[in-house]
Amino acid sequence: MRPARAVDLKRQRADCELNGAAMSEETTTCRRLLGKVVLITAATAGIGLGIALRLGQEGAKLAICSRKQANVDATLKQLRSRGIEAVGCAANVGKRADLEAFVQLAVDTYSRIDILVSNAAVNPATGDVLEIPDWAIDKILDVNIKAAIVLAALVKPHLSKAGNIVFISSYTAYVPTRPIALYGMSKTALLGLTKALAEELGPEGIRVNCVAPGTVPTKFAAALVESDEMRKLNESRTFLGRLGTPREIAAAVAFLVSEDASYVTGETLLVGGGMHAKL
Ligand SMILES: NC(=O)c1ccc[n+]([C@@H]2O[C@H](COP(=O)([O-])OP(=O)(O)OC[C@H]3O[C@@H](n4cnc5c(N)ncnc54)[C@H](OP(=O)(O)O)[C@@H]3O)[C@@H](O)[C@H]2O)c1
């Protein structure tokens, strides 16, 4: 998906600001998560930030992270200014020690965790699968798959009864096509992880689900909408004829982590405007 070309970043930024504005205007009356403690990775921009805002608006207490302390600080300020209780720290999900410190911060602050939203992912290289260099294969597998497993394992001992986990996958999980097929395959693995953990943790009452977003114009997806041509192509792949917003992905996550989804586990919800991705 990266790198983006400068010429189209202007439009990107406008889109993101629009999405951000839409999110900040949003006042959901739902309070399904009152008092719930939610851990969200990569929550300082794009879809992760949208999830933090939505779950916070529904009454959740948050622990957030991303790699850069400045981003964490700015996001905590933004959340708290909206009356949302939140703590956070700089953490690269690819580093176990960072994940341990992040989980510890949440436990020290709130004494338990009710919900984990594993959202972080990277796509450091594009191209045909067999052309991707080893370092990039390692990074994609480490951050997109291994970190999700390690984080779930670290969170598990602190998960409350009837706690739950949501992994953020992608529509590309269903159709891992060039030039981002390796990234797509890493997202396919999350569908499998969701099924596997749903079975393993089900007897303890812990639900595990997954959300697969369609194309959402964030920094991460900049290359997919960098030109009018690319943007129109991606829009035309949906039944609704438009791209998604972080707010729309966050609404699906809010449903899955809430008691409204109390009998839903092992599922992946594709939020892609009707994008053809599965039967
Ligand atoms: N946008 C789309 O079209 C789309 C479609 C399908 C799926 N997704 C998935 O949605 C998720 C979020 O993507 P997005 O589009 O919202 O991206 P984004 O807007 O570019 O935001 C990325 C966020 O991740 C943080 N981050 C990046 N690497 C990290 C790491 N190693 N550890 C911790 N935090 C990290 C960034 O903050 P720092 O720079 O401070 O680390 C930032 O907060 C990803 O799993 C992506 O695969 C996106």
TrEMBL record:
Keyword Transmembrane carried by entry: yes
Question: What transmembrane ranges does the database entry give?
Answer: 33-55
The keyword Lipoprotein appears for this protein: no
Q: What InterPro entries does UniProt report for this protein, alphabetically?
A: NAD(P)-bd_dom_sf, Sc_DH/Rdtase_CS, SDR_fam
Q: What is this protein called?
A: Dehydrogenase/reductase SDR family member 4
Q: Which Gene3D superfamilies match?
A: NAD(P)-binding Rossmann-like Domain
Q: Which UniProt keywords are present, listed alphabetically?
A: Membrane, Transmembrane, Transmembrane helix
Give the superkingdom in one word.
Answer: Eukaryota
Q: Which family does it belong to?
A: Belongs to the short-chain dehydrogenases/reductases (SDR) family.
